[in-house]
From TrEMBL, chains A, B:
Organism: Promicromonospora umidemergens
Protein's recorded name: FAD-binding oxidoreductase
Keywords tagged on the record: FAD, Flavoprotein
SUPFAM superfamilies per UniProt: FAD-binding/transporter-associated domain-like, FAD-linked oxidases, C-terminal domain
InterPro entries named in the record: Alkyl-DHAP_Synthase (IPR025650), FAD-bd_oxidored_4_C (IPR004113), FAD-bd_PCMH (IPR016166), FAD-bd_PCMH-like_sf (IPR036318), FAD-bd_PCMH_sub2 (IPR016169), FAD-linked_Oxase-like_C (IPR016164), Oxid_FAD_bind_N (IPR006094), Vanillyl_alc_oxidase_C-sub2 (IPR016171)
Limits of the FAD-binding PCMH-type domain: 91-273
Superkingdom of this protein's organism: Bacteria
Protein family according to the UniProt entry: Belongs to the FAD-binding oxidoreductase/transferase type 4 family.
Length: 536, 536
């Protein structure tokens, strides 16, 4: 993972010539970006932890697993939102005081104990792909920040092939999980855009949703059990596939964002590796017609694994990318549909979905649109790096609501983005798609590009504030699958109310009385900032 | 609802002659039962609330909606477990001090405020069908008990036919909900055995699961939003069909059992009234083969609405009840399967399920078995009253686990029941069925009949204790859909751990600092009993 951008450094690329032309047409002349600095050039303003802290941590995990080096600390300096990446381009940076890699659940508990004794905040770190400020090295009221990297707690613990249930260490990356399961003929089937780097613990902590959620469910729905180490004890949750033994506490830790403890193991439902994968592309006259078709499929439950719909603008960009400029100029919306499973069942499900989409006015489109989506689906973040290199601001955000409220929400968010950016003097283009469907509603995923100038951080913060207000005012959720982090924390009260916030804080006070777990994330800055000049 | 038995007094009936013969063969001679007393004969040992309390409550809800009458109080004296009904047969009874019927959410909040000021416990009451001691008139540390009956908060609030989502008042009974939805062409599809009397708020508070859960999901899965009045404020939860805005607090109140507040509204997913209902009955060589077949269907997701399997003994009893004694003597297990929905889709799903069941060794059986199950499915509790009248102890209990652990669990629970009852000197017969299936596991539902003598309460308590220990030791859940109540509370710590219990208590302390909400239920007796001679 690049410290200052997305993903595999070897996979980074420049901006394709066609995209450059398109951008110029849409956004006008864009001033050149400040070049991304080399790691050696940046000043890390937060000092590493002192020797006594390091020694205490080393006594728990071993000296080889405590790292105060500049590279390790900068690799753990934040997530991968566009603001995160813009901050990585600045001359001065903040970073955690140390990176610690525990090798067992007991070591996690011992690290939390040391942190509590020494007043150090702990930020659990999986794949580092968070995009809502959940990995900020925020010490809260404490002396410094420990980044608790879970990479050594990785791998398959058990696979129950009868129950089709697997237990994995939380630090297992999604590709590693699929590889281990695949060897035994099984699949998890969770494919968010962060797939290549993110971990199972991260998916659970952030309530991730993947591109195959129409069929396999969001990550919430896959989880049947969790082990969580809190500062005041261990939880081993999930005794049965269905239970009425009081509130389902597993659900408390899905979305817990490291604020109450560290998820160490995740138990998930898996399924046999699909025999067949049947891709289809569809075209609809407009987004309203397309969304109506998706709604019918979701409500009848005909069983696609993937069901996505791009709006008119996103469709045009996608078509242009695959060289189909003629179609790109025509209006219309394209959808991608995938059916998987045992051959006969997948075919039968595809037929049922096809009938519904036809009745709803859909027309079959070239299958290559679906296949090219499949091939390119983890590449967008690399394109974002190239856009930022070229001075083009690019970010994504997402929400969800009922089918009845979907178009009003889309209008409100698009308007808040476009108006907000215009107010900042920036031309912009907003693309949108439906990526996740439910019987009662769907998510909306927005991609925005804009010419926001050489210092887009502060103006974007104002725009994002406006968008969050628009989402909340429209009655939608502040996040469908990116989470709360520090960025959305100010809007959480409008989502769950003052009473809901008090519930979160009460559990926080019970499980983490010293407030060392991921200060600022989820609950916002509830503790006063530490006085200047103290520790570090 | 009968105060001392199940359901509609007019539907009560004696024991069919055939059943009497069967019982004599299985259980031997049963001593005659103590006859159920008339309401006028019983002594209610707990006094009604005093005039000042009644006046304070009347000032909130109106004098017409505060009832200290013996009949109202005894109708709210508990739930409908067999121990509840046995207690109703005793000469001395305990009951809440008053029954209050609020007419609005504001009145619920005001009743809680009055109760807090006057140190009165509040037991929320829906249909009164609880079977795990969740409606005990336990004052905890307080002066007396208010039974908060939600029947006036009933009816459909809104139906969104596009999103297929309905909001209903928590006091709406299941038949009333189906009737209101049915008028507009929709159905909820939640059919637990308590269907005829239970309320939507009760389903939510207890994490109910219905007989159509294979298709429509357990009640947890249907709920998209809740409104809850707590002693310290109102919650309005559920902003989107999917969200990553922190922990899903809706899930906290599913299974909350009135311990944190009063659920006043429930928002649920609904579906169009099915065009067709296709019943099938199947036979398997034995329970192991049948369970394996159900597992395959659940894991492939071929889409039945109902999928149940009786074990050999339950199958024999069912066949005997429909007069098929020849088949009853043969060994084997019968399954009931239902597919519903639009005609074509239901047929296609039925074909897919049929293929799997055949491949798993199933043989189609007479459809009338399925139809007779459908006709009789709400009648079992009436039969229990007749059994109790005839001195036969009869109770049900349930749990759930993974497919891998299912048979070990069945053996453990059956053994604990049979051995425990034998130790009490009672002959018994244990029947079992799988009523709810998931991809990773299933529930087991046990019915036990025994000749436990004229005073079965205490010996049954010992047996039940042994069964709960067996369930816990087998790694299964203490309840799949009956809940915790007071009866299972001592086993909750083994289910969620000491840390989990602390979470529940922390939220309880935050939302209900005076501890007035349903003392003893869910969390067990956390407060010391009030000193003798004080108030009441």
């Amino acid at each position: 993972m690049r410290w200052s951008g997305w993903g595999d450094p070897g996979a980074a690329h420049g901006l394709p010539g066609g995209v450059k032309l398109l951008l110029a047409a849409v956004l006008g002349r864009i001033p050149a970006a400040r070049p991304a600095p080399d790691l050696a050039e940046v000043t890390v303003t937060t000092p590493p932890l002192d020797d006594a802290d390091v020694a205490a941590l080393a006594s728990v995990v071993g000296a080889a697993h405590v790292d105060v080096g500049r590279e390790a600390r900068m690799l753990h300096a934040g997530g991968k939102s566009t603001p995160d990446l813009l901050r990585r381009r600045q001359a001065e940076q903040v970073a955690p005081g140390v990176v610690v890699l525990p090798g067992s659940e007991d070591e996690v508990a011992a690290v939390l104990a040391v942190a509590g004794e020494r007043s150090l905040a702990v930020v659990p770190f999986g794949g580092g792909t968070a995009v809502t400020g959940g990995l900020e090295p925020d010490a809260g009221a404490h002396r410094g920040v420990v980044s608790l990297d879970l990479r050594r707690l990785a791998g398959l613990v058990t696979l129950d092939t009868t129950a089709q249930e697997a237990t994995l260490w939380a630090g297992t990356t999604a590709p590693a999980a699929e590889s281990a399961l695949g060897e035994q003929g099984f699949e998890l089937g969770h494919f968010p855009q962060s797939f290549e780097f993110a971990t199972l613990g991260g998916f659970a902590a952030m309530r991730s949703s993947g591109q195959s959620s129409a069929g396999y469910g969001r990550f919430d729905a896959m989880v049947t059990g969790l082990r969580v180490v809190t500062p005041t004890g261990l939880l081993d949750l999930g005794r049965a596939p269905g239970s009425a033994a009081g509130p389902d506490l597993v659900r408390w830790f899905l979305g817990s964002e490291g604020a109450f403890g560290v998820i160490t193991q995740v138990r998930v439902r898996v399924h046999p590796t699909p025999e067949v994968r049947l891709f289809d592309a569809w075209t609809f006259g407009d987004f309203v017609a397309g969304a109506d078709a998706l709604r019918r499929v979701a409500q009848l439950g005909t069983g696609p694994t993937v069901l996505r719909l791009s709006d008119e603008d996103e469709t045009a960009v996608s078509l242009a990318q695959v060289g189909n400029l003629g179609k790109a100029l025509a209006r219309g919306c394209s959808a991608v549909v995938l059916h998987e499973g045992p051959d006969g069942l997948a075919q039968a499900r595809r037929e049922a979905t096809t009938r519904v989409l036809r009745e709803a006015g859909g027309r079959p489109a070239a299958e290559k649109l679906a296949v090219s989506w499949d091939h390119g689906r983890f590449k967008a973040p690399y394109l974002r790096d190239a856009l930022l290199d070229n001075g083009v601001f690019c970010e994504t955000l997402e929400t969800a609501t009922t089918w009845s409220n979907l178009h009003a929400l889309k209008t409100a968010v698009t308007g808040a983005l476009a108006d907000g950016l215009a107010k900042e003097g920036a031309k912009s283009r907003v693309l949108c798609h439906v990526s996740h469907v439910y019987p009662t509603g769907a998510s909306l995923y927005f991609t925005v590009i804009a010419g926001l100038g050489v210092d887009p951080l502060v103006p974007w913060e104002r725009v994002k504030h406006r968008v969050n207000d628009a989402i909340t005012a429209a009655g939608a959720t502040i996040s469908h699958h990116h989470g709360v982090g520090a960025d959305h924390a100010p809007w959480l009260e409008q989502e769950i109310g003052e009473v809901g916030l008090r519930m979160l804080r009460a559990v926080k006070a019970e499980l983490d009385p010293a407030g060392i777990m991921n200060p600022g994330a989820l609950l916002g800055p509830t503790t006063p900032p530490r006085p200047a000049g103290q520790g570090g």
